[in-house]
Amino acid sequence: MSRAPGDRMRRLAVSFGGLGYVPRMPGTAASAAALAVGLAVLAWVPQPVLVLAGLIVLSLAVGFPLSAWAEDVAGAKDPAWFVLDETAGMWVAMWALPGGWKAALAAFALFRLLDIAKPPPVKQAEGLLGAAGIMLDDLAAGALANVVVRLVWSLAG
């Protein structure tokens, strides 16, 4: 394990406050926490679309550069404790959806399904090297979930 200055803060950031170390399904735990944050934003923030966009940008700004560090420290591609990709993907999944919390819950379920099943183009994004492969598969799963929830919502409404 690396002992460089700042490693503890990096681990805390990329594990989304330690949720990446949940023994089973750390990605789902981080996605659920991101959903909770997103629901709080929807409920209490006057401009939730802007705040969610900011959270997405922040996750990407931290996640892209630190994904290479996490791979170096872990000695493996896409270590399970690196979950900023899931948080960013979850916020993309629920960004600007009609339908409030109900649509956000549907987006969560669909995002997790797509992230685990990895249909195209999620699988192709995962195959990219380095930070792109770590981050983009979850962004693709989030974007797909967002589009599907929008379509279903518009057909149902």
Strand content: under 5%
Question: How many domains make up the 3D coordinates?
Answer: 1
What is the string of SSEs from the N terminus onward?
HHHHHHH
Distance between the termini: 52 Å
- Low-confidence spans: pLDDT under 50, at least 5 residues? none
Q: Report on the biggest sheet.
A: none
Helix content: over 70%
The gross shape turns out to be: globular
Mean pLDDT across the residues is 94
SS element count, helices:
7
Calculate Rg over CA atoms. Answer: 15 Å
Number of strands: 0
Question: What structural class should be given to the helix and strand makeup?
Answer: mainly alpha
Describe this structure in words.
By secondary structure, the protein is mainly alpha-helical. It has one domain. The protein is 73% helix and 0% strand. The chain has 7 helices and no strands. It has helices at residues 7-14, 26-44, 48-74, 84-94, 100-117, 122-126, 130-156. The termini are far apart. The model has no long low-confidence stretch (mean pLDDT 94).
Jot down its keywords.
157 residues, mainly alpha, 7 helices
What is the fold's blueprint, element by element?
Elements: H1 7-14, H2 26-44, H3 48-74, H4 84-94, H5 100-117, H6 122-126, H7 130-156
Helix pairs in contact: 1-3, 2-3, 2-4, 2-5, 3-4, 3-7, 4-5, 4-7, 5-7
How would you sum up this structure in a few lines?
73% of the residues lie in helices and 0% in strands.
